[in-house]
Design a protein that fits this description.
147 residues, alpha/beta, 5-stranded parallel sheet, 5 strands
Length: 147
């Protein structure tokens, strides 16, 4: 194994998944890509005004995700010494998280995907499944789910 993809969001389990990946990356000399997917459907039907504002909104969402999520996570990891000797890339994309992470893993040549399990049990999750469960079923590479 040479490379892993870590899917992160604002949850504590994402932080644990990143820690899990980075600790193993230090020992095994893995390359780590930290990815966040902004949930967005290209099949939604926005109003004309929303359609006109979408490029500006997307730019703001990308900037916010980097500033409010990716950078603080990497700063935390650096303070914990988890980045020592680890090559880390970042990626922020729009789409359905399980689809985008699956595509990133395949296109980026990653050997595994590591994500956190949220433990949610709301009706939507029961009917449609969580991102982690969908990844386990559809990803082209092994998926590690960190509790």
């Amino acid at each position: 194994m040479n490379s892993v993809l870590v899917g992160v969001d604002h949850s504590e389990t994402s932080r644990r998944a990143l820690e899990f990946a980075l600790r193993r990356a230090q020992v095994n000399e893995w390359r780590v890509t930290v990815a966040h997917v902004i949930n967005w459907s290209r099949f939604s039907f926005p109003t004309l005004e929303e359609n006109e504002q979408r490029p500006v909104t997307r730019k703001k969402e990308l900037k916010s995700a980097r500033k409010d999520l990716i950078e603080p996570m990497l700063e935390w990891a650096s303070a914990e010494g988890l980045l020592d000797g680890v090559e880390v890339d970042t990626a922020i994309h729009f789409g359905h998280p399980f689809e985008v992470l699956s595509e990133l893993a395949a296109d980026g040549g990653h050997d595994a995907i590591i994500v956190g399990r949220t433990g949610e049990s709301n009706l939507k999750t029961v009917i449609f499944g969580s991102t982690a469960s969908r990844l386990v079923q559809h990803a082209p590479v092994p998926v590690v789910v960190v509790p």
